[in-house]
Amino acid sequence: MAMKPPSTPPAAATPSMEEDFDDSAEIKFKADAKGRLVADETARLNLEKLFALYTPAERQKELDKLQATLPPAAARDLADMMERYVNYDSAQRQTFPPGGDLASPEDGLNVIDGMHNLRVQYFGADAANSMFGKEEKIQRELLRLMSLEKDGSLTIEEKAERAQAMYQSQMPE
Fold it and tell me: Do residues 10 and 139 make contact, with C-beta atoms less than 8 angstroms apart?
């Protein structure tokens, strides 16, 4: 059996991820001192919520409400960022179809590299790093830990489980 591509880190790898994607949590976006949208991990998680939880028509209504709470430039940035996210998601699904299997940690690194390149293409280098950098770092570390496993009798899934356990044991409480 092969491992699924790491399009998002496994929940066990990032315990806070579930809390961050709490669909009951209020969706808010922030503007910086210049009145521009802050493109960080929280913004990305909120874009994901808008995309996942609402139909396109409902999403537009939610965007309209959210834009009304922001300075004009940030409101425009939000509309643009949502459009970029929708296009990015489509490109990601075409390039890395859900359900694809990985045979090795090296395959996983290739997927992460490809997804990073897509993110840079759709959001720009700075925003891609701000929005996805932490997630990519965790994914790369998990794959590094998997590649250290020398027990050839383990499946890729078993190696992933061991890597997650090692990663979590390294995290401060």
Answer: no
